[in-house]
Design goal:
Thrombin, subunit H, about 300 residues, nine-stranded antiparallel beta sheet, 5 helices, alpha+beta
């Protein structure tokens, strides 16, 4: 309980950062929810987005301005994987979120996808990713999305991005910094959670972070305490043993509950239920991070 109280203070501080950065919440009474998307960086103009889409799998080189914001995880862990910065363009606006796990359909001829939060984009939204060695790459489009569930904590908040087949050799299921996912978590109780996202201030550079999950509705939502901020939306979290816990989507405050501030996300079980039985979570046998595309077999 002492640990939970400590990380609750961290979460409250992170909430204040999020509020101050966006100005979207003006008072801390009653129920408030902050989704963890962030505006795209200034250099991600319409022209840059169009050039990345036109270049396709080849990508476009990183400019000095891009390199200032390239995530550490992109430098240390190559390829398309959980915890990478993604930029989304729906034709009307752009935003920044974080990728979560790799999924696939098929057996011998597999089709690969990567996840993020549903409120990050609708079906048809273009998705670019910063990753080495290629640079800024148009990896594909969102093909499934729950959209923004609003304040309904029990609702699934997830989107699926179909990865361009020409980029399959760049895919790694291994989570940056932490390794795994070795499988999917279906338990409950107090659990340590590990994640790496692109949240402002505490997450800049793809910072690895830890927290404590304390409430699970396996078919829908889980809650945890820890430091998250806008930009972390969609990032994946794992528990002990490298098991995928789910994604990260919001910070909430409700002065009527204990603890009054928490972080939330959709459980991996709810994500898999939403996707349907033809989809599988891509796992990595290593409970430590694998830096290259792919993942060694057990």
């Amino acid at each position: 309980m002492a640990r939970i109280r400590f990380v609750a203070v961290c979460a409250f501080s992170a909430l204040l950062v999020a509020i101050n950065a966006t100005g979207s919440v003006t008072q801390l009474t009653g129920m408030h929810v902050r989704k963890l998307t962030s505006p795209a960086p200034a250099w991600y103009s319409k022209d840059v987005a169009e050039r990345a889409e036109a270049a396709g799998p080849a990508g476009i080189p990183l400019t000095p301005e891009m390199r200032k914001t390239i995530p550490t995880s992109t430098l240390a862990f190559l390829g398309i994987r959980p915890g990478q910065l993604i930029l989304l363009d729906d034709g009307q606006s752009t935003s920044l979120c974080t990728s979560n796990f790799i999924f696939y359909t098929g057996t011998t001829a597999k089709t690969y996808y990567i996840g993020t939060a549903g409120h990050c984009g609708k079906v048809g939204t273009n998705v670019d990713m910063l990753y080495l060695p290629k640079g800024l790459v148009h990896i594909g489009k969102i093909v499934k999305s729950t959209g923004d569930p609003g304040d309904n904590f029990g609702a699934t908040d997830f989107a699926l991005i179909a990865i361009d087949k020409a980029l399959y050799a760049d895919i790694s299921p291994s989570m940056a910094y932490w390794g795994g996912p070795t499988g999917s978590f279906s338990g409950s109780g107090v659990q340590p959670v590990l994640h790496a996202g692109w949240g402002l201030v505490v997450g800049t550079g793809g910072t690895p972070r830890a927290g404590v999950a304390y409430a699970w509705r396996v078919g829908s939502e889980y809650r945890f305490e820890g430091a998250v901020t806008p930009g972390d939306s969609g990032s994946g979290a794992i528990v002990a043993g490298g098991l995928a816990a789910g994604n990260i989507t919001h910070i909430a405050i409700d002065t009527r509950q204990t603890p009054p501030v928490w972080n939330g996300g959709t459980t991996i079980q709810a994500i898999l239920k939403y996707l349907g039985t033809s989809y599988r979570l891509a796992t990595c046998s290593l409970a430590v991070p694998w830096p290259l595309p792919g993942c060694p077999t057990a």
